Amino acid sequence: MKSTFWVMAVIAVGLTLLVYRKDPALVFTGLKTGFGMLMGIVPALVFGFWIAGMITVIMPTELLTRLLGEESGLKGLLIATVGGMLTPGGPFVQFPIVNALLQQGAAVAPVVTYLSAWALMGINRFLVYEVPLLGWKLAVTRILASLAFPALIGLLTKVIWSRL
Length: 164
What we know:
9 helices; mainly alpha; 0% strand; 164 residues
């Protein structure tokens, strides 16, 4: 976290200096735009961390490790696939949830499977965007073609993770 903070700080200061050299008045405009973006994200962040906190206290560790732990095998990858597909929200919701799952004892492979299923086959995007904009046939075809990938990604993750 500390190195990420300093890299981001250096980039922010560097870009601010570039903007200042172009036109000092644009610095305020850039800060105002960035703050507006932050205020648009804050509610999702708050609820994402809220959900993550509730997961850590409601999900019994024994159950979580049985369902998504190291020994969960293919069953864990399938559960993670379904969970990823059904969980709504953007990255501001997903990554706090993933952090909570890892802290509670979920293994890396099911967690990566969960994220992959969320990214590839989120049911909320499917219903809200894909079906209305692309039609049922294309949307269903894409989902069906994607079904095997989250578990495959989870299996590959297990192999790669064990070798790093």
